[in-house]
C-alpha cells in the first residue's frame, strides 16, 4: 500500500511526499459457551474474543421461551477469554434458553455471539408437621377444670425446599417470608374458621434447605360432640401450604382433636344437727297406789321391795292347787334413782312390769284395776322440774276354759286405759310433754295392751316419752349446677329423678325437700325422723338429679342430707397447742424451732352460738365471724399471748374457735425433767341462741426446758520429769561418848550405844538401817515421801550418871539424777536426845518416855536443772499414827522404830490449764439458790482435790486445773489418765442435770533443753523444742521460748534505768508451762513485798510488768527501770497484786522468798 501526503509551504508552494507499506488486517470476533446445573438452577458461562480490548465488558443476556431474561457481565482477560459462574437462572421457566453475548472491539464496533441451552430444573419442596394436636374443653374458662390447665397445644411445621420460601399459608392466611422471619420477636395471630387461635411464635433455618415454623393452637370455643361422655372429636384440620421462590406449592394439614367436656358430677353432702334435748333425771320412784286399787271378792295387799315408799308388789286371790298365786311386781329403773341422762323425743324406760300369773280360786279376791305412779326430778338446761305421771291398769282375770293351762284362751289381759295421758311443762320458753307410751311386747312393739300366759311369770318393760314441741329443723342450701364448657342444654338441663322436673317438692320418710329452678332448696326434718333419731346417730336422705349439657352429655349427681342426732346442750373439746420452752431465745435450743402453735376449741351446739366470754371480754357473733380479719389478743400473767384467729361454723352444729399461743417466757413446771405442763390460759363461756351456756379453758401444753447436760473434755500435756536416787549411804556422826559400830556395807556408823545397863538389861542406843533399795538407781516421784531408812531407839534402862548422851547427827548421802543430770546430795539431820528420868514405877508409862527431836527439819538442798529449781527436804519421822513428825517419844524397855522420810519437790510451775465451763440453764434460767453444785465441795466455787490434780472453780464457771507434782514422775510417756469432776445444774423450776468436766492428762517425754543467752545489745532469741533456759541479757530483747516448758531468766544488772527502762518482749509466754525467773534481777524482794517491785497492767491483749529492781516502785510505771511485755497474756479483770500472786502460786514467777 502506498501513502501520499501533500501540503503548502510558507511561500505558498505545494509540496508532496509518498511512502509504501504492507497491510495485514484482523477481523474482531466473540464466542459464548454455557453449562446449566439443573439441580441448583445455576449456569456457568465462558467464551473467547478477538480484537477486543483487555478488561472490557462482555454483556450476556439469557432468554427463556416466554421472553423472561436474566442478564450478567464478564470481563475480558489478557488472552481474550472471559467467564462468569453460578448465574442464578431459577426465575426462568424450564425449556429452551437463548444466550446472547456482546462486546466492543478495538475499533469501537459491536461484536456479537449466540448459543442455545436447556433448563430442566430439579425442584425439592416438602412440608411436614410434628403431629396432631389435642386440646381439652374442660380447660376453657367455663370448663369443668378451668384452673387446672390451658386449652392449648403446640406444634411445628418443617419445610424442605431447594428453591427457598416465598410464603406460607396457614388456615387460609398467607404469611410472607419476611413476616415469618419477624415472628420470633412479633408472633403472628391467625383465627381459624371455627374461631380458634393459631399463633406463629418462631421461625428458624435448620440447614441450607430446611426451615421450621413453631406455632401454638388455642381452643377458644367448645365443639359439638355427638357422642355421650368425654369423647374425643377430630375436628376439621388446619390447612397448610408453602410456596417456593419459583411458585411451586406443597400442601398439608394438622389434625386437631378436641376432647369433650361434660357436666361436673357432684355428690353434695349437707349436715343438719337435730337437737335432742339432754336432760338429767334423778330421784326416781315408782309403785302401785293401794288406795286406787280395786278387786272383787276381797282385797289386794301391797309390799315395798325397794328404797322408795311405793308398793312394788300387789298380791290377790287364794292360790289354787298349791300354786304361788297371782301378783304384780314393778321394778324401778334404778339408774334413774341416783342420776342418769335422757334425751327428749326418745323412749324412756321407766322399769319392768311383771305379772306372775298363777292359778287362784274363783272364790277368792280378783284384781280388777290399779294405778302405777312414777315420779322423778328432771333437769333441762339447768332448770329443775318435778315430773309425775300415772298409768291406769285394767286387769281382766279370764276363766281358764282350756284344759291346757297355757293356751292363749286362758291368758289374762292387762290394758293401759289412759294411754293418751299427757302432762305439759314449759322450761326456758320451750314446751315439753311427758307421755306414757306403753309396754314393749314380745315382737318389739310399743302397745297399750298385753296378754299374760297362765302359770308363768310375764315381764314387760314400761316406756314413757319426754317430747319436745319445739320447731323442727329446717335447712336451706344451694346445689351449684355446672354443665362444663358446652353449657346447659336448651331443654331439660336439670331433672330431679323423684319428680322428673327441675323444681318441685320431694317428700321422704325423713323430711321434705323443696327444690327451686336455680338449685336453691330447703329441707324440713319430719317429726317422725326426730323421734327415732338417737344421740350420735346419723340418718341419710339421698336425692339424685341429672344434668344435660348443650351437646347432650348426661351426668348424674346427688344431694345427701345427713341428720345428726346432737345434744341440745353445748359441748366443747379443746385441742391444746404444744410448744417447747427450749426454743425460746434463752432456751437450750434457741432458734431451732417455733414457740408458737395453734389450738382449737370444737363446740357442738344444736343452736347457733351467739357469744363467747373470755377474760371479761364478750365477743358477739359479728366479732366472732371477723376474727380472721381482726384477731383478738390476750396476754397471760406470765406475759405469753393468746390470739383468737378465727371462728368457723361447720357441719352438724359444729363450730370451731381457732387460737394461736405464743410462748414468750417460760412457765413453772413442778416435775423433774422435760415434762409437759397442761397450762390453763383463760376460761371461756359459750352461749347459744337457746340461752344454753358451757364453760371450758383454753389450754396450752408447754414442754419444760431443762439445763443442758455437758460433757466437756480438755487435754493437758504433762512434760514428764525423770528422777532417780542411787548410791545411798547413811550413818551417825558427832555422837560424843557413845560407842559407834558400822553394821552395813557403807563406812558410816549405823549403831550407837551408851550408858550402863541396869538389872541385866541391854545398853540404850540408836540404830539406823539404810533403805537398801536406794543403793542402786531407783525411780522416785516428785513431792512423794521417800523412805530413807528405819531409825530405832533401843530404850533400855541405864544407870543414872552412866551417860551424858544428848544427841547426834545422822548423815544421809546419795546421788540424785534429775532429767539425766547428776546431783550429789548430803543432808545432815541433827537429832536432839532427851533422856528423861524414870519417875513412874511402871517402866512403860509415858512419863518415862525418852524424846528424840529433829532440830533442823526445815533444812533443804536446792538444785537448778535445765533452769528449773528442785529441792530435797528431810521431812521427819513417821509416827505410830502415820503422821510425819519432827519429834518422837520412845517407850522405856522397848525397841522403838520409826521410818525416816525425805522428799524431792519442784518449785517451778506445775502443768496447768485454764478454761470455762459454760452453764446453760435453759429457758427457765438458774435457780435462785444452789444453781450450781460441784461434787467434792457441794458449792459453785472452790477447790476440788482430784486424782491427779486440783481444780479451782469460780462461780462463773471459769476454772484452773493444776496437776499434782507426782504426776510429772509417775505418769508414763504417751500414757493418758483422766481426772473427772461432776457438777449439777438446777434451773428455776427445780430441774436438775448432771454434767462432767474431764481433764485428759497426756504424758509427754520432756525434751532436753538448751541455754540461749543474748549479749549486751538488742537481741531476738528463739528457743528450741525442749525445755529451754532463755537469758536475754542487757538491752531490749525479743524472746521466743518455742515448744516445751521454758524459763525466761533475768540476771543482775540486766535492767535499764529509771526513765530509760530496758524493754523485753516475751512473745509466747502463754504456750506451755513457762516461768519468769526474776530472783537474780530483783534485790530484797519477797512474796509479801513483791508489789513494791512489780506492777502489772493490761495493755490490749497483752500484760506489761513494770519493774523497779531495788524496790520503791510505788505503783508508778514511771519509776520502772525494767519492762517485760507478755504478749497474748490477759489479766482477766484481776488486780496487779492478784495477778502476781497467781503467777507465784502457780510457780510461774520465781522470786526470793
UniProtKB/TrEMBL annotation:
Q: Mind telling me which GO cellular component terms the entry cites?
A: extracellular region; membrane
Q: Which domain of life is it from?
A: Bacteria
Q: Is Membrane one of the keywords?
A: yes
Pfam family membership, one: HemolysinCabind
Respond yes or no to whether keyword Membrane is given for this record.
Answer: yes
The places in or outside the cell where this protein is found are: Membrane
What is the enzyme's main class?
hydrolase
Q: What Enzyme Commission number(s) does the record list for this chain? A: 3.4.24.40
Please name the Gene3D superfamilies in this protein's record.
Immunoglobulins (2.60.40.10), Serralysin-like metalloprotease, C-terminal (2.150.10.10)
Keywords for this protein: Calcium, Hydrolase, Membrane, Repeat, Toxin, Virulence
PROSITE patterns reported for this sequence: HEMOLYSIN_CALCIUM (PS00330)
- Extract one GO molecular function annotation from the record: hydrolase activity
Matching NCBIfam families: choice_anch_K (NF038131), T1SS_VCA0849 (TIGR03661), VCBS_repeat (TIGR01965)
- Which named protein is this? Serralysin C
Q: Which organism's genome codes for this protein?
A: Nitrincola nitratireducens
Q: Which gene encodes it?
A: prtC
Amino acid at each position: 500500500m502506498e501513502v501520499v501526503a501533500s501540503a503548502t509551504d510558507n511561500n505558498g508552494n505545494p509540496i508532496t511526499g509518498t511512502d509504501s507499506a504492507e497491510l495485514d488486517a484482523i477481523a474482531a470476533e466473540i464466542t459464548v459457551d454455557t453449562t446449566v446445573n439443573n439441580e441448583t438452577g445455576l449456569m456457568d458461562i465462558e467464551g473467547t474474543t478477538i480484537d477486543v480490548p483487555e478488561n472490557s465488558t462482555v454483556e450476556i443476556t439469557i432468554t427463556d421461551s416466554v421472553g423472561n431474561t436474566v442478564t450478567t457481565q464478564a470481563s475480558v482477560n489478557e488472552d481474550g477469554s472471559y467467564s462468569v459462574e453460578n448465574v442464578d437462572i431459577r426465575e426462568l421457566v424450564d425449556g429452551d434458553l437463548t444466550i446472547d453475548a456482546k462486546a466492543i472491539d478495538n475499533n469501537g464496533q459491536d461484536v456479537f455471539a449466540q448459543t442455545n441451552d436447556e433448563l430442566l430444573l430439579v425442584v425439592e419442596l416438602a412440608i411436614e408437621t410434628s403431629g396432631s394436636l389435642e386440646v381439652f374443653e374442660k380447660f376453657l374458662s367455663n370448663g369443668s377444670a378451668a384452673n387446672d390447665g390451658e386449652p392449648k397445644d403446640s406444634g411445628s411445621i418443617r419445610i424442605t425446599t431447594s428453591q427457598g420460601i416465598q410464603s406460607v399459608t396457614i388456615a387460609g392466611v398467607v404469611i410472607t417470608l419476611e413476616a415469618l422471619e419477624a415472628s420470633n420477636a412479633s408472633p403472628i395471630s391467625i383465627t381459624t374458621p371455627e374461631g380458634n387461635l393459631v399463633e406463629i411464635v418462631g421461625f428458624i433455618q435448620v440447614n441450607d434447605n430446611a426451615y421450621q415454623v413453631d406455632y401454638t393452637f388455642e381452643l377458644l370455643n367448645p365443639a359439638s360432640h355427638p357422642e355421650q361422655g368425654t369423647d374425643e372429636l377430630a375436628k376439621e384440620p388446619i390447612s397448610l401450604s408453602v410456596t417456593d421462590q419459583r411458585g411451586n406449592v406443597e400442601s398439608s394439614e394438622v389434625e386437631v382433636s378436641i376432647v369433650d367436656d361434660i357436666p361436673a358430677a357432684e355428690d353434695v353432702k349437707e349436715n343438719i344437727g337435730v337437737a335432742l334435748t339432754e336432760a338429767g333425771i334423778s330421784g326416781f320412784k315408782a309403785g302401785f297406789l293401794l288406795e286406787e286399787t280395786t278387786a272383787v271378792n276381797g282385797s289386794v295387799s301391797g309390799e315395798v321391795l325397794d328404797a322408795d315408799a311405793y308398793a312394788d308388789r300387789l298380791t290377790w286371790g287364794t292360790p289354787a292347787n298349791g300354786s304361788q298365786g297371782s301378783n304384780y311386781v314393778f321394778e324401778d329403773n334404778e339408774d334413774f334413782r341416783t342420776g342418769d341422762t335422757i334425751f327428749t323425743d326418745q323412749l324412756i324406760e321407766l322399769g319392768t312390769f311383771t305379772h306372775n300369773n298363777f292359778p287362784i280360786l274363783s272364790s277368792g279376791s280378783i284384781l280388777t284395776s290399779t294405778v302405777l305412779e312414777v315420779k322423778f326430778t328432771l333437769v333441762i338446761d339447768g332448770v329443775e322440774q318435778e315430773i309425775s305421771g300415772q298409768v291406769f291398769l285394767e286387769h281382766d282375770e279370764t276363766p281358764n276354759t282350756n284344759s291346757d293351762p297355757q293356751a292363749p284362751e286362758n291368758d289374762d289381759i292387762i290394758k293401759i286405759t289412759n294411754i293418751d295421758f299427757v302432762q305439759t311443762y314449759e322450761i326456758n320458753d320451750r314446751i315439753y310433754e311427758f307421755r306414757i307410751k306403753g309396754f314393749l311386747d314380745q315382737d318389739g312393739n310399743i302397745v297399750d295392751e298385753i296378754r299374760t300366759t297362765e302359770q308363768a311369770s310375764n315381764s314387760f318393760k314400761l316406756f314413757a316419752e319426754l317430747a319436745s314441741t319445739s320447731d323442727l329443723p329446717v335447712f336451706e342450701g344451694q346445689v351449684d349446677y355446672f354443665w362444663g364448657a358446652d353449657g346447659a342444654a336448651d331443654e331439660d338441663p336439670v331433672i330431679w329423678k323423684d319428680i322428673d322436673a327441675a323444681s318441685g317438692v320431694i317428700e321422704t320418710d325423713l323430711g321434705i325437700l323443696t327444690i327451686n329452678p336455680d338449685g336453691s332448696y330447703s329441707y324440713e326434718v319430719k317429726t317422725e325422723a326426730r323421734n327415732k333419731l338417737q344421740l350420735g346417730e346419723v340418718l341419710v336422705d339421698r336425692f339424685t338429679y341429672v344434668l344435660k349439657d348443650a351437646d347432650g352429655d348426661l351426668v348424674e349427681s346427688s344431694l345427701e342430707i345427713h341428720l345428726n342426732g346432737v345434744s341440745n346442750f353445748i359441748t366443747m373439746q379443746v385441742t391444746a397447742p404444744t410448744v417447747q420452752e427450749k426454743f425460746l431465745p434463752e432456751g437450750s435450743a434457741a432458734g431451732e424451732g417455733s414457740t408458737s402453735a395453734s389450738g382449737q376449741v370444737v363446740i357442738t351446739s344444736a343452736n347457733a352460738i351467739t357469744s363467747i366470754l373470755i377474760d371479761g371480754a364478750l365477743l358477739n357473733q359479728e366479732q366472732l365471724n371477723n376474727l380472721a380479719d381482726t384477731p383478738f389478743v390476750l396476754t397471760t400473767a406470765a406475759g405469753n399471748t393468746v390470739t383468737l384467729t378465727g371462728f368457723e361454723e361447720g357441719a352438724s352444729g359444729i363450730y370451731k374457735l381457732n387460737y394461736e399461743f405464743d410462748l414468750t417466757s417460760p412457765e413453772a413446771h413442778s416435775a423433774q425433767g422435760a415434762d409437759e405442763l397442761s397450762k390453763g390460759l383463760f376460761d371461756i363461756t359459750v352461749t347459744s341462741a337457746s340461752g344454753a351456756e358451757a364453760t371450758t379453758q383454753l389450754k396450752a401444753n408447754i414442754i419444760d426446758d431443762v439445763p443442758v447436760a455437758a460433757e466437756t473434755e480438755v487435754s493437758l500435756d504433762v512434760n514428764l520429769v525423770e528422777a532417780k536416787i542411787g548410791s545411798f549411804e547413811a550413818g551417825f556422826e558427832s555422837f560424843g561418848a557413845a560407842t559407834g559400830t558400822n553394821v552395813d556395807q557403807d563406812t558410816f556408823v549405823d549403831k550407837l550405844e551408851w550408858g550402863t545397863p541396869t538389872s541385866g538389861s541391854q545398853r540404850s542406843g540408836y540404830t539406823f538401817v539404810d533403805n537398801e533399795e536406794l543403793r542402786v538407781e531407783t525411780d522416785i516421784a516428785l513431792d512423794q515421801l521417800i523412805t530413807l531408812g528405819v531409825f530405832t531407839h533401843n530404850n533400855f534402862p541405864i544407870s543414872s550418871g552412866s551417860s551424858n548422851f544428848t544427841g547426834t547427827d545422822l548423815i544421809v548421802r546419795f546421788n540424785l539424777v534429775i532429767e539425766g543430770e547428776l546431783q550429789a546430795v548430803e543432808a545432815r539431820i541433827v537429832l536432839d536426845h532427851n533422856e528423861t528420868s524414870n519417875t513412874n514405877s511402871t517402866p512403860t508409862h509415858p512419863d518415862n518416855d525418852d524424846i528424840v527431836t529433829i532440830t533442823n527439819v526445815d533444812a533443804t538442798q536446792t538444785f537448778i536443772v535445765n533452769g528449773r529449781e528442785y529441792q530435797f527436804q528431810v521431812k521427819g519421822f513417821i509416827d505410830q499414827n502415820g503422821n510425819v513428825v519432827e519429834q518422837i517419844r520412845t517407850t522405856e524397855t522397848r525397841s522403838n522404830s520409826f521410818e525416816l522420810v525425805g522428799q524431792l519437790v519442784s518449785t517451778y510451775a506445775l502443768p496447768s490449764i485454764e478454761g470455762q465451763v459454760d452453764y446453760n440453764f435453759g429457758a427457765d434460767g438458774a435457780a435462785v439458790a444452789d444453781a450450781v453444785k460441784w461434787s467434792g465441795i457441794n458449792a459453785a466455787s472452790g477447790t476440788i482435790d482430784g486424782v491427779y490434780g486440783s481444780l479451782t472453780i469460780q462461780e462463773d464457771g471459769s476454772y484452773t486445773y493444776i496437776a499434782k507434782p507426782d504426776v510429772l514422775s509417775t505418769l508414763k510417756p504417751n500414757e493418758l489418765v483422766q481426772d473427772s469432776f461432776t457438777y449439777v445444774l438446777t434451773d428455776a423450776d427445780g430441774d436438775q442435770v448432771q454434767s462432767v468436766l474431764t481433764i485428759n492428762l497426756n504424758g509427754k517425754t520432756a525434751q532436753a533443753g538448751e541455754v540461749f543467752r543474748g549479749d549486751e545489745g538488742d537481741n531476738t532469741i528463739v528457743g528450741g523444742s525442749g525445755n529451754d533456759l532463755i537469758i536475754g541479757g542487757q538491752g531490749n530483747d525479743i524472746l521466743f521460748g518455742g515448744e516445751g516448758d521454758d524459763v525466761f531468766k533475768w540476771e543482775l544488772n540486766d535492767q535499764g534505768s529509771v526513765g530509760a527502762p530496758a524493754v523485753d518482749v516475751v512473745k509466747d509466754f502463754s504456750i506451755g508451762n513457762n516461768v519468769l525467773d526474776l530472783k537474780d534481777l530483783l534485790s530484797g524482794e519477797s512474796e509479801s513485798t513483791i508489789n513494791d517491785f512489780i506492777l502489772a497492767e493490761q495493755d490490749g491483749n497483752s500484760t506489761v510488768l513494770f519493774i523497779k529492781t531495788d524496790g520503791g516502785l510505788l505503783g508508778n510505771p514511771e519509776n520502772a527501770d525494767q519492762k517485760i511485755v507478755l504478749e497474748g497474756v490477759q489479766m482477766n479483770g484481776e488486780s496487779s497484786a492478784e495477778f502476781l500472786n497467781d503467777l507465784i502460786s502457780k510457780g510461774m514467777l520465781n522470786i526470793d522468798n
